[in-house]
Amino acid sequence: MTPMRRPLIAAATLTLALVSATSSYAADVDKAIEYRQDALGVIGWQIGPLGDMAQGKIDYDAEEFARRAENLAAAAPLPWEGFIESSLRGDGHGIDTAALADIADDWADFESRQQALIEETATLAELAQGDDVTAMRRQVAAVADTCKGCHDNYKAE
Amino acid sequence: MTPMRRPLIAAATLTLALVSATSSYAADVDKAIEYRQDALGVIGWQIGPLGDMAQGKIDYDAEEFARRAENLAAAAPLPWEGFIESSLRGDGHGIDTAALADIADDWADFESRQQALIEETATLAELAQGDDVTAMRRQVAAVADTCKGCHDNYKAE
Q1: Is residue B19 a part of any domain in this protein?
Q2: Summary mean pLDDT of chain B
Q3: Which tens digit of pLDDT belongs to each residue from B63-80?
C-alpha cells in the first residue's frame, strides 16, 4: 500500500487533500490543453509553407519542402496526449477550448484520424526525399484533408 | 528584376505598399514568436517526465522514457527558425517576449547552443533504446544543462 492510499484519519486533512488534488488536476488539464495547442501550432506552422508550395503561392524549394515535411511527420504524433479527460468543451473543465466533447464520445474515430495524419505525413516526408513534385502536391492535399476532417468534426468554430 | 523591386511611380501607391509591408511584417514577427513559444512548449512538456524519471520523482518506465526521448529529439531542431529579426526584447518588435536581443548580438553562440541541444537530445534518444538507466539519467541532466545555459544567457527573468 502506498502512502497515497492510506485512509486519512482527520477530516480536515482529507478536505485539504481533496482541495489540493482538485487544483492540481485543474492545473494538469490547463497544461494539457496548452501543450496540445502548442503541438498543433507547430503542425500549423510547418504545414503552411508546404501548402503554399503545393498551391504555387511560393516557389517550390526542394530542401525546404523536405525539411518541413520531415518536421511535420515528427510533430504529427505529438498533440494527442494532450486530449485528456475533462479538457474538452462541455466537459466541465472550465477553461476555453475549441476541442469539442464529441472527441470523448467518439474516441475511436478521433484516434483513427490521428493515425491517418501520422501516416499521411510520413508518406509526405518519404515523397519529399524524391523528385515527383506532382505526387508531393497531391500528398500535401491529402494531409490537409486529414486536418480539415478533424477540425470539421471536433473543433468549435 | 522582380515586380517587387520595380520603382513605384505614384507616392500614394508607395505609401500603401509600405504600410502593407509593415503590417504584414509585424504579423510575421508575432507568428514567429508564437511559433517558437509553441515549439519550446512542446520541448518543455516532453522533457518534464524525463526529468522526473531521471530524478526518481516518478518510476522509470522504459517505454515512456524512449517515446519522450524520441519526441524531444524530434522537437529540438524546431524552435529556432522562430527567432527572426525584430522579434527580440529591445529589438523594436513591440510585443512582449522573454527572448533577449543578446541572441542577435551573439548569434553564433546561440546557434552553437541550438546544435548542442539537438546533439544531446539525439544522444538521449539513442541511449533510451538501450538499458543503461544510469547513462540515461546522466544524459537527461546534460540535456537540461543545455536548456538552462541558454535560458540563463538569453531569456529574461
Answers
A1: yes
A2: 86
A3: 999 999 999 999 999 999
pLDDT in tens, A77-97: 999 999 998 899 877 666 679
**H/E element, B76:** none
pLDDT tens sequence across A54-64: 999 999 999 99
The nearest CA of chain B is from the CA of A105 a distance in Å of: 26
- Domain contains A3: no
- Count of domains in chain A? 1
Task: Supply the CATH number for residue A99's domain.
Answer: 1.20.120.10
B2 inside domain: no
CA A93/CA B33 separation, integer angstroms: 28
Q: Provide, as residue numbers in chain B, all residues whose Cβ is less than 8 Å from the Cβ of A39.
A: 38, 42, 45
Residue among A119, A115, A112, A89 at smallest CA distance from A102 = A89
Give the torsion through C-alpha atoms of B28, B89, A42, B109, to 10 deg.
Answer: 110
Cα–Cα dist B139/B144, whole Å:
8
CB contact under 8 A, B75 and A74: yes
Tell me, yes or no, whether B64 lies in a domain: yes
- CB neighbours (10 Å) of residue B11? 8
Domain of residue B69: give its range: 8-154
ipTM above 0.85, yes or no: no
Distance of CA B157 to the CA centre of its chain: 17
Query: Which of B28, B34, B37, B42 is most worth mutating to test chain A (most A CB atoms within 10 A of its CB)?
Result: B42
Grid cell in block for residue A95: 477553461
- Paired residues of A155 in beta bridges: A99
